[in-house]
Design goal:
alpha/beta; 479 residues; globular; 6-stranded mixed β-sheet
Length: 479
């Protein structure tokens, strides 16, 4: 029986090897035949006859892992002791922790941070709740809230299984923007229960990041929270995706020499991301956006039970086109897919306008295979890391919350999102910009700062900032 393995890009095989029958070259050959790559080897124990070694092997898929195992099992004198997925190993014990910001070394320290000293701080906040921003963690802490109903490409896997994703989000907040994020996975799918739970816990947080909540409930939850809370509420699946798509599109349009106001843009997949993407495109100046979902083009000639579709049909498709995706694509400048894989053919792309731009965001399989798109698409972006121009939400949400927290914003409005998109796009200079490079790396250290600055400026301009950060005050004085 084969040892249990799980999907991952890197595994560790512990092998017991009879040195008289097999050697490293044999192992490397077996791995290479499966297109795997040995990146490390560690000796666990060794004798003149038997050696136990850990081989770290990079792979790309579960079938490839199975091929590696099969090839090694076929070798004489080799026994596979364990197969460890490095992704699983990195999650053991969780990925985040809580640390004190100052030590408690003696009784006086204890009396200051806890009783009796803490009482005076509590009384100060009781008299003026705004002091919680200065005297507690509220000013820099975001709740990362999910019910586990729309996790990555996994769907409704529940709150327990959603926790690793939310922990990962907290890691990104901290490392990239020095924002403290805490994962909160709710064991309910009831919309009202989710809203009420978040409202009741909001005093402890400076912002709410909604994550992986299925549509259309996510729209109702976000709307209600924005109305009831005076802290930023941001549904990353909607707005994060939309911001980064707009950023990439702004640069792609520079390459083809087109203005967003003159472009015909088709967005397919009218879920959370598709609807938000449609709205941000309109906010950015697009005049002709056409929404398409499983039943075809959203049109004012049709009444939809889904209130979100009804709303979208009334603000898009100015020519009131009807039909299927292939009908919408004729003469289109830009295709944005946030739906499902392999729905866009090469022949359909060939009906688009000159120099077509295609953002095929479905994961793991894009709406069109990048190899098929080559030669017919001028600029291609996907949601995958193994192709150029990856559209990744990590480019926006850390900087957006950093900016919102720094100016103590009451909301993250459309102007702040558009500003964030322009900030991301501006990272790439005219000299650097090309078809293979329209979006910066998530590790570019200028991204968070640029997004933060743009968000703060937009918040101040639109009146949702409750304070002007010191760096903005200095700049204003200098001017």
């Amino acid at each position: 029986m084969k040892p249990f393995t799980s999907l991952g890009t890197s595994i560790i095989l512990r092998l017991e090897m009879d040195v008289r029958k097999v050697n490293f070259v044999d192992i490397a050959t077996a791995v290479g035949k499966a297109n795997g790559d040995i990146v490390a080897m560690d000796v666990v124990q060794s004798s003149n006859e038997v050696t136990v070694r850990d081989y770290t092997i990079n792979t790309k898929s579960r079938p490839q892992i199975d091929d590696v195992i099969n090839n090694i099992e076929a070798l004489p004198g080799v026994e596979i002791i364990t197969v460890s997925d490095r992704t699983f190993l990195s999650h053991i014990g969780g990925k985040i922790e809580v640390r004190a910001t100052r030590p408690i070394q003696n009784r006086e320290d204890l009396s200051r941070v806890y009783t009796p000293g803490v009482a005076s701080v509590c009384e100060a906040i009781a008299k003026d709740q705004s002091k919680a921003y200065k005297l507690t963690i509220k000013s820099n802490t975001v709740a990362i809230v999910s019910d586990g109903t729309a996790v990555l490409g996994l769907g409704d896997i529940g709150p327990y299984a959603a926790m690793p994703v939310m922990e990962g989000k907290a890691m990104l907040f901290k490392q990239l923007a020095k924002v403290d994020g805490f994962p909160i996975c709710l064991d309910t799918k009831d919309t009202e229960e989710i809203i009420e739970t978040i409202v009741r816990m909001a005093p402890a947080f400076g912002g709410i990041n909604l994550e992986d909540i299925s549509a259309p409930r996510c729209f109702e939850i976000e709307k209600a929270l924005r109305e009831r809370l005076d802290i930023p509420v941001f549904h990353d699946d909607q707005h994060g995706t939309a911001v980064v798509i707009l950023a990439g599109l702004l640069n792609a349009l520079k390459i083809v020499g087109k203005d967003i106001k003159d472009c015909k843009i088709v967005v397919t997949g009218m879920g959370a991301a598709g609807v938000s993407c449609t709205k941000i495109l309109l906010s950015a100046g697009a005049k002709q956006v056409i929404g398409v979902d499983r039943d075809g083009i959203l049109s004012r000639s049709v009444t939809y039970e889904n209130p979100i579709w009804e709303e979208v049909s009334n603000i898009t498709n100015p020519d009131n086109l009807q039909g299927e995706l292939k009908d919408a694509l004729i003469g289109t400048d830009v295709f944005i897919g946030v739906s499902r894989g392999n729905i866009l053919s090469k022949e359909m792309v060939q009906t688009m306008a000159k120099d077509p731009i295609v953002f095929a965001m479905a994961n793991p399989n894009p709406e069109i295979d990048p190899e098929e798109a080559a030669g017919v698409v001028r600029v291609l972006a996907t949601g995958r890391s193994d192709y150029p121009n990856q559209i990744n939400n990590v480019l926006c949400f850390p900087g957006i919350f950093r900016g919102a927290f720094d100016c103590r914003a009451t909301d993250i409005n459309e102007e702040m999102k558009v500003a964030a998109a322009h900030a991301i796009a501006s990272i790439i200079s005219e000299e650097e910009l090309n078809e293979q490079y329209i979006i910066p790396s998530v590790f570019n250290d200028r991204v968070v700062k640029n997004v933060r600055d743009a968000v703060v400026n937009a918040a101040i301009k639109t009146g949702v900032a409750r304070k002007v950060p010191r760096d903005k005050r200095k700049k204003k004085t200098a001017e």
